[in-house]
Amino acid sequence: MRVKLTDRFAKQAAPRGRRSPIFMDEEVIGFGLQVRETGRKSFTLDYMFEGRRRRLYIGDFPDWSTQAAREHAKLIKREIDQGIDPLAVRDERRTAPTVKHLIERYLTEHVVRLAPDSACDYRSMMMTYVMPVWGQRKVIDIRRSDVDQLLVEVAKGRARPHKAKTKQKRLKPLRSPRPTPGRANRVGGAVRKMFNLAIRWEMRADNPAAGFIRNPENPRERFLDVTEIGRLSEVLNEHKNQRMADVIRLLMLTGARRGEVLNATWDQFDLDRAVWTKPAHTTKQRRLHRTPISGAAVQLLRTIRARVPAECPWVFPGDAEGKPIHEIKRFWDDVRKRAKLTNVRVHDLRHTFASLLVSGGMSLPMIGKLLGHTQVQTTQRYAHLFDDPLRVGLNQVGEMLRPKLKLVASDNVADGEAARTEVAA
């Protein structure tokens, strides 16, 4: 039945028993008003697509006026003429993956292949910053402005979380937020990688995090000088826990990462050839890293080997049976305070090792090889340490080219002595 659909007609239209009649509009072909037995009235659009008859739900009356529904039906018909099936688009959007699904796949298929510490950090960033904000949104709905807003909020920092309240322990007040621009950059990099994988997994066609605005960072460059190294050595020698002290010594002598040292096993070392072969699963770059070690490091390892039971595979066995030492933070804080080392992290021992190599005249490519760097720019942070050796060379050249001075007699004579004047040759 074709009628002139108006708001008045829609208001007066009534159901016919159990049937749900559809009153077709005489102006727009396929546009109609369906009246159900319950009294619900809905605007629909019938159309043909690739030989199939389909019916699209537009909206209910009176939420949609008749004129608004008619104009929307015209818009949909134009899309159909362009070869777009609106029902297929709607179904695809309804079943489109959410960011929650993307994060879960990102963690299980990509992050799991990273080094344990890196994987833990990435998982924390996703669950702390991204999931609460975007979890229920569709992957295809995330825009560049959403990424910018997320990173701005991360850069503001957040109050330090606390444990759940218990009867035995009262809650401590939260610390006020501190700006974390570096953390925002790390989150931005993780999100960018995740959406690159979303493109690969055909969840969307572009990356909204590509070219995100990075916050300026001042790379931390803390190196221990000779005096500080001396104080640290004295504290380590006098400390009652020599097992933990040996961990710090090996970090200083090899420049290795904390996790590489703590998880080191005896089968990784060839002490006769002074070589440490780190398996791929223990390195940050996830690659086999074979590096020479110094005679001092070999001597230290031989001393440790004499103290560790022969059946123990770990260089630094922990208190838990069958596991290595897990954490050295408390020990380092104690040693750092005793040695009066302000603002020094365990990782700064690695920087100190590199600075000593630079002062010894080793080239940046060789330093990068020893430290296991996969990117040249990572090693470039130590380039400025070459300034002093270069300045010495420049001074030597300057001395060679400086004009030589000679003594000449002056024409002016006073008190019977000839005055002598220095002039450039």
Please identify the top-level CATH class of the largest domain: Mainly Alpha
Shape: elongated
CATH A-level architecture of the largest domain: Orthogonal Bundle
Q: What is the straight-line distance between the termini?
A: 116 Å
Count the beta strands: 10
Task: Determine the structural class based on helices, strands and strand pairing.
Answer: alpha+beta
Q: How would you name the CATH homologous superfamily of the largest domain?
A: Intergrase catalytic core
Cα radius of gyration in angstroms: 37 Å
Average pLDDT:
82
Instruction: Summarize the main sheet.
Output: 5 strands, mixed
Q: Could you name the ranges where pLDDT drops below 50 across 5 or more consecutive residues?
A: 389-394, 416-425
Helical content class: 40-55%
Number of domains: 3
Strand content: 5-15%
How is this fold's topology laid out?
Layout: E1 2-3, H1 7-12, E2 22-25, E3 31-35, E4 41-49, E5 52-61, H2 66-81, H3 86-94, H4 99-109, H5 116-134, H6 144-156, H7 181-200, H8 226-238, H9 242-254, H10 258-262, E6 269-270, E7 275-278, E8 289-292, H11 295-307, H12 329-338, H13 348-359, H14 364-371, H15 376-379, H16 387-401, E9 405-414, E10 417-424
Parallel strand pairs: 1-2
Antiparallel strand pairs: 2-3, 3-4, 4-5, 6-7, 7-8, 9-10
